[in-house]
Amino acid sequence: MWSAYIGTRGRDVRLERELEVELERSSQIADPGLVAAPSSPSRDAANREQMVLVANALSQLPKDYREVLILRHLEGLSFPEVAKRMGRTLSSVDKLWVRTLARLRRVLGVMS
């Protein structure tokens, strides 16, 4: 039974926190009403570029990865709620979340 998990990594909460900060920052960029600092043309261009990078990264993720990310982060559902919505076990959603974060980090080129 345990042999299926040989070579896999456990859940890294630091990874989740770092990505949550990045996703929150991209959410603030996506909604200019949430950004407190005054904007400049160069800042606007940088924000648009970052939004494009995040959108491209999300488009490269498999459908299940995008779905778990949207349900968990954007819709703010708990893991049990995500599992129910996706028709999966809590354990499989937890593992899918970890794989999703790892893949998103690689796609975005975020260093550990």
Protein traits:
elongated, mainly alpha, 112 residues
Query: Which bin fits the share of residues in helices?
Result: 55-70%
Round the mean pLDDT to the nearest integer and report it: 78
Helix run count: 5
Radius of gyration: 16 Å
Regions with pLDDT < 50 over 5+ consecutive residues? Answer: 1-5
The end-to-end span amounts to 30 Å
Largest sheet: none
Order of helices and strands: HHHHH
Strand content: under 5%
Count of strand segments: 0
Backbone shape: elongated
Structural class: mainly alpha
Task: Explain the layout of strands and helices.
Blueprint: H1 13-30, H2 41-60, H3 63-74, H4 79-86, H5 90-108
Helix pairs in contact: 3-4, 3-5, 4-5
In brief, what are we looking at here?
This protein is an all-alpha fold and 112 residues long. Helices cover 69% and strands 0% of the residues.
Question: Could you characterize what this model shows?
Answer:
The chain has helices at residues 13-30, 41-60, 63-74, 79-86, 90-108. It has 112 residues and is an all-alpha fold. Helix 4 crosses helix 5.
